[in-house]
TrEMBL record, chain A:
Keywords: Signal
Secretion signal span: 1-23
Domain of life where this protein originates: Bacteria
Keyword Signal included in the entry's annotation: yes
Full protein name: ABC transporter substrate-binding protein
Source organism of the structure: Leucobacter allii
Pfam family, one: SBP_bac_5
InterPro entries listed in its UniProt record: SBP_5, SBP_5_dom
Coiled coil: none
Limits of the Solute-binding protein family domain: 80-408
From TrEMBL, chain B:
InterPro entries tied to this protein: BPD_transp_1_N (IPR045621), MetI-like (IPR000515), MetI-like_sf (IPR035906)
Domain ABC transmembrane type-1: 95-299
Family: Belongs to the binding-protein-dependent transport system permease family.
Origin organism lineage: Bacteria, Bacillati, Actinomycetota, Actinomycetes, Micrococcales
Protein name (database record): ABC transporter permease
Membrane spanning residue stretches: 12-31, 101-122, 134-157, 177-197, 237-260, 280-306
Membrane topology: Multi-pass membrane protein
Keyword line: Cell membrane, Membrane, Transmembrane, Transmembrane helix, Transport
Length: 511, 313
């Protein structure tokens, strides 16, 4: 009975093959051993937001932008800035000036030379950009000291500016392209590749290698193709079919990796759990969460490690902290602090005066549905009844902060001071009222982190702050989830905490 | 025929205005503050305020609507809130992809469905009739995305005859274009082929029992001329199905585009709705409605031409 459709399939297949007289597209994944040059076809999860770095997202834009632009500094994968166009830098004793020495051998693809004036113009453009401004909130001015030196003058100390610049906020652009306002359509950088005219927008971006690039040897990929593929199955099919050799993977791809000889790289990227937005109990609905014992009860009730195994198939870290596992600030000794104990959780609730529980309303959107049943069940065991308000994902971010708590999957940062800023101290969409006033200890220790000498003293202050926010159950972190990258045996990928897809500088050939 | 055409065009314009206006207000009601979705996790109050000012959402909704209507009347779809590129240009680059696979699917459905339906209708109860009936049941029961996955696993991953993902424009390579749209079009078409065949079969069976067919036969007309007459009377239902199919495949293409990673309207719509990119959503809505109106208009003209009584009705 299936003969009929299959006949049609076969007929069309034959016709197409006759017309093309070649096999499916895709580049041979095998490398040219003699020259050390290999084709690299990347399956990214999202299309490039914009080729204009001031409008680009850090998330999945890494490979696209890093192909055509050089940054001043680049994240080394662990939150530390490394030299790129800036060869070295120095922070003044008062922490208010950063002086950078620049390379003198970089050239923009329109022929203009990269120098201090170009760097200042790019930085000023980035500071004014809607999305890129996040890195330059505390910058007073940029100064070209001489042809190959710039100074960044700050209004106040900023320990995170170099980190944000390294994440993808310091791409340098041709001054004339900035003036023309054409970067969004035609990127003009000094990067190791230029965008090819053969690219198919939204489907396949092809890049031409710049032979004279100052670090050409570090980019042995030719041809380079980046394809946005938001479907995990499509990405896996592309890898299996030989069209792709580095993809943003999932557990299904990782499970197949061993049998196929693929490499899997993974690293924590997000924390998953409950975010409290009313730690002072200022609202009627959020009143219970102003009591630390209620927050501790919730921390004790959920079995994070089990959720990691069941929902994330074990791809992540079983930790109850917002500092990424394995990085400065995260303390393994705290992970057992809220070992699952439903009786203890009930006792804590009773001590707080909620022996019979209470009612709470929470927002819900499709991406968070995998956690919905667990939340309802665990809170139900504590006598806490949940009413869900359903939203579309696009609306969730706007609505969630209006509830006293919500299910969160939040990006983490590789830099511990950035974590203190974004997760604890500064209002963000997911943390609209940080509630530092609810705890004198937290406020004092946040101030101590920002005032401490970088190095051991600051690390100690960060760790003390982490102990305090964990004691006070500032969050209910179930686990930290991994980002996963699957590649053919030729490549390895270094995940970068703070970005969803690392840059070309984090993709290497296997030695 | 002229007043018939004008009436159809007018109703199309009214439909466009109502749907576009409804979508505008519904989208703004559903996403009251799009800046969060657009900025993502890095959103700060400062960047949200800057973006709101840039995209104009800090102004009253009615003022935004007025500006949008004024711009639309001049053919200006505005700029995407996500990447600040013209909406029309972005849809213009995606539309050919979706139209490629949808048109190919409709053509496949018309040709194969037409041949199979006619053959089955001329010989009710024959083996081909039974095959068409059985295939209808099976292909209706199988989800489109499953068919697409089977096709890609077999013909792209295993045999590597076709690309598993991606799209090649015909301007770059005609063969590459055919390869890139073949599997998605087949995945879309399989269900449609049997639907057209079913409709045509029923029409042919009914028409075949009419007196005029017996008369034609008694006059000794060649068989192919009798079939032409039969088809003229039996085809309206199948044509209507094909037109409806075109419209439904436009939306059905979203899943297939995702499975084959094709940069069509589906990917744009999905991204725009997730990000809260309202101008892009509105642009896609307007374009889709225009297509629906055009297809229905052409169908009405065609049916009117085939059967003059339809013009009066």
């Amino acid at each position: 009975m299936k003969k009929t459709p299959l006949l049609g399939v076969a007929a069309l297949a034959a016709a197409a093959l006759a017309l093309t007289s070649c096999a499916a597209r895709g580049t041979d994944a095998g490398g040219d051993g003699a020259s050390g040059v290999v084709p690299l076809n990347i399956g990214d999860f999202l299309d490039v937001t914009s080729w204009d770095p001031s409008l680009a997202d850090i998330g999945f834009d890494g490979p696209y932008l890093s192909a055509v632009y050089d940054p001043l500094v680049v994240d080394d994968g662990s939150g530390q800035p490394e030299p790129a166009l800036a060869t070295d830098w120095e922070v003044s004793d008062d922490f208010l000036t950063i002086t950078m020495n620049l390379r003198t051998d970089a050239v923009f693809s329109d022929g203009a030379a990269f120098d201090a004036d170009a760097a200042v113009k790019s930085l000023e453009y980035l500071q004014a950009g809607v999305r890129s401004q996040e890195a330059y909130q505390k910058v007073e001015s940029f100064e070209a000291v001489d042809a190959d030196t710039i100074a960044i003058h700050l209004t106040e100390r900023d320990d995170t500016i170099l980190y944000y610049m390294g994440l993808g906020r310091s791409y340098m652009m041709s001054p004339s392209a900035i003036d023309d306002g054409t970067l969004a359509e035609t990127p003009v950088g000094s990067g190791p590749y230029t965008l090819s005219a053969d690219s198919v927008t939204g489907s396949e971006y092809r890049f031409d290698k710049v032979a004279e690039h100052w670090a050409a040897a570090d980019f042995p990929f030719d041809p380079l193709v980046i394809s946005p593929l938001s479907d995990a199955t499509a990405m896996l099919n592309g890898l299996q079919g030989g069209q792709l050799n580095v993809i943003y993977g999932d557990q299904a791809a990782a499970d197949m990796a061993e049998g196929q000889g693929w490499n899997v790289s993974e690293g924590v990227a997000t924390w998953v759990g409950l975010q409290f937005t009313d730690r002072t109990g200022a609202t009627e609905m959020g009143k219970p969460f102003g009591d630390v014992r209620v927050r501790q009860a919730l921390n004790t009730a959920f079995d994070g490690p089990e959720m990691l195994e069941a929902i994330a198939q074990g791809s992540g870290a079983a930790t109850n902290q917002v500092f990424p596992a394995g990085t400065t600030g995260n303390l393994a000794e705290l992970d057992e602090q809220y070992a699952t104990d439903i009786d203890r959780a009930k006792d804590l609730l009773a001590e707080a005066g909620y022996a019979d529980g209470f009612a709470v309303t929470m927002p819900m959107a499709p991406p968070f549905q995998p956690y919905q049943a667990t939340v309802e069940q665990v809170l139900g065991e504590l006598g806490i009844t949940v009413t869900w308000d359903e939203y579309q994902f696009a609306d969730y971010m706007g609505k969630a902060p209006g509830y006293p708590l919500f299910i969160a999957v939040l990006s983490m940062d590789g830099d511990p001071v950035a974590t203190v800023e974004r997760q604890i101290a500064t209002p963000q969409w997911y943390n609209p009222t940080p509630g530092l006033e609810a705890s004198a200890d937290v406020q004092e220790q946040v101030d101590a982190v920002f005032a401490a000498e970088p190095g051991d003293a600051q690390t100690a202050a960060i760790e003390q702050l982490n102990r305090t926010v964990t004691d006070e159950a500032w969050f209910d972190v179930w686990y930290q989830a991994n980002n996963m990258f699957v590649s053919t045996s030729d490549f390895t990928v270094t995940p970068v905490v703070g970005t969803m897809f690392p840059t070309l500088r984090h993709i290497d050939l296997v030695e | 025929m002229l007043s018939f055409t004008i009436k159809r065009l007018l109703s199309g314009v009214i439909l466009l205005v109502v749907v576009a206006t409804g979508t505008f207000f519904l989208a703004h009601l559903a996403i009251p503050d799009p800046t969060l979705g657009l900025l993502g996790s890095a959103a700060t109050p400062e960047s949200q305020a800057a973006l709101a000012q840039k995209i104009g959402t800090d102004r009253p909704l009615l003022a935004q609507y007025g500006d949008w209507v004024a711009a639309m009347l001049q053919g200006d779809f505005g700029e995407s809130w996500k990447n600040f590129q013209p909406v029309a240009a972005q849809i213009g680059s995606k539309l050919p992809v979706t139209l490629s696979i949808v048109t190919a699917a409709v053509l496949l459905s018309a040709v194969l469905g037409g041949v199979l339906g006619t053959a089955a209708g001329l010989r009710p109860g024959s083996w081909i009739d039974r095959v068409v009936q059985a295939a209808s049941v099976i292909l209706f029961a199988l989800p489109g995305f499953w068919i697409a996955l089977v096709l890609v696993m077999l013909f792209a991953v295993q045999l590597q005859w076709f690309p598993a993902v991606g799209y090649t424009p015909p301007t770059q390579s005609l063969g590459g274009w055919l390869q890139s749209i073949a599997l998605p079009a087949i995945a879309l078409a399989l269900g449609a082929i049997v639907m057209v065949a079913e409709q045509l079969r029923g029409g042919v069976v009914l028409a075949d029992r009419q007196d005029y067919v017996r008369t034609l036969r008694s006059r000794g007309l060649p068989r192919w001329r009798i079939i032409v007459h039969l088809l003229r009377n039996a085809s309206p239902a199948a044509l209507t199905v094909l037109a409806l199919m075109f419209v439904s495949l436009l939306s059905g293409a979203v899943v297939v585009e995702q499975i084959f990673a094709l940069p069509g309207i589906g990917a744009v719509t999905l991204g725009a709705s997730q990000n809260g990119d309202i101008p892009m959503l509105l642009g896609v809505t307007v374009i889709t409605v225009v297509f629906v109106v055009i297809v229905n208009f052409l169908l009405d003209l065609l049916l009117g031409w085939i059967n003059p009584k339809a013009r009066v009705q």
